[in-house]
Structures are given as C-alpha cells and as structure tokens.
Write a structure and sequence with these properties.
CATH architecture of the largest domain: Up-down Bundle
Strand content: under 5%
Number of strands: 2
Oligomer: single chain
Strand order of the largest sheet: 1-2
Low-confidence stretches: none
Structural class: mainly alpha
Number of helices: 11
Helix content: 55-70%
Largest sheet: 2 strands, antiparallel
Shape: elongated
Amino acid sequence: MTAVDDPVASDKLQSFSPVPVMRPREQVEEQLRAAILSGQLPIGAKLGSEAALAVEFSVSRTTVREALRSLATQGLINKVPGSGGGSFVRSVDHQSFGHVLREGIENLLQLGTIERREASAVRLLLEVPAVRLAAQKATPDDIAALERILERLKAAPIDHPDIPLLDVEFHTSIARASGNRVLSSLIFALHRATEPVRHLELTKEVGRQSHRQHSQILDAIRLHDPDAAEQALVTHLAYLDEHPREDETVGA
C-alpha cells in the first residue's frame, strides 16, 4: 500500500503547512539584521550605498531602500542625509530602545492614532513600581544624579525652556535607579513623548510645590523607604492633575 492509499499516512501529510518564501526585501533585511545583532557589522559601521548593496544582494535599489527603511524604523541603523551621509549601525541597547520607542509614540500622537492621555496613563502606571524599586536599589551615584537635577530645576526660572527636559530627566533617573533597564526605557519614552510639564499651569506657586514634592520623593529614595516614595510620587502626580493648563481638557 502506498502512502497515498494509506489514510493514516494521508492524514500525516495533510498536517504539514507550506513554508512561505521570503520576499527579496525581507531577505535583505534579515541578513543585515543578523549581521548587526551578531556584531559582524559593529556599532558605527557604515553600510554600503543602495547601489552597492543592490549589486551584492542581486536585487533592485528599491528593494534595498525598503529594507533599510525597515531597519531604521527598528532602530538598528541611522540614515544620515548629505554627501557624507549614508546608513550607519546604531547602538543597540536599552537607551537606543527608549529613543526608538519615543519616536514611535510621538509618530502615533502626531497621526492621532493614539491620544496623549493614553500614553500618560501608561506612564503613571509604570512610575509607581519604578519609584518603589528605586527606593530599594538606588546607589549613592543614583541619588547624587537626582540631587544635581533638582538643583538645576530649583535654579531655573519657571519659564525656562529647559524645565520640561529637566523634569523628564528627573523622572527618568528615578526609573534608571530602579535597576530595570526595560522599565527605564519605557518611562523615558513615555515621559519624553508626553512631556507633562508642557501641559501644566506653570505658576510660581505650582513650581514651588512641584519642587517640594520632587524633594520629598528624593528624600524617600535616599532613606530607602518604598512606601514613602510611592506616597510622595502619588501625591505629586495627583497635584499635577489638579493644575492643567487652561487650554487643556480634563484627562487629556
């Protein structure tokens, strides 16, 4: 009896699925990705031109261009325009991940695919466990970094253009002190994309209260008290929610 005549053998054959053949763009993308992640193409290395890569892979320049665009979206390469530019291998670590994630969130916000309140809600959900971990794990260097940021915030006028970035740096540094690099990257991306201070009623009183609350958060981290750190952060976030800019809608 042949396999075709044998119903059991026939059932076994029917359980197999065809393996899809990758398109030329996917083949180029996969090979370049593998070379980057394996270190064959080190950080900072310049890839060949589109024309050179097209010849090397025996594909069209359009195919190469699509593959490079996909790799750039994934944060694996950086495309620099100009005569001295080209495609360069980016650093692949938690910090570059945070920057790529930030760019993605900003694009979604600009396109209107997501709303700022959605990104802000996720950021708030992540900041509580981050500050608790920071209170448990913060090193003297972590605490010193937070102190330096607070000094710069205290010295800057309320309308100084660096205030939003310093606020992002303060909250991101707390997340970094948690010791969880993925958590740190997520909070950086969400904080940088939403920049909550830009949506805050920045009066002198709000600035003083915000600085006092930042100091209380730092004090709790310095004392390695997770409960106090969480309470100080929650109080701070609730206070910010109570003082939106006049042109901001509730929950925006």
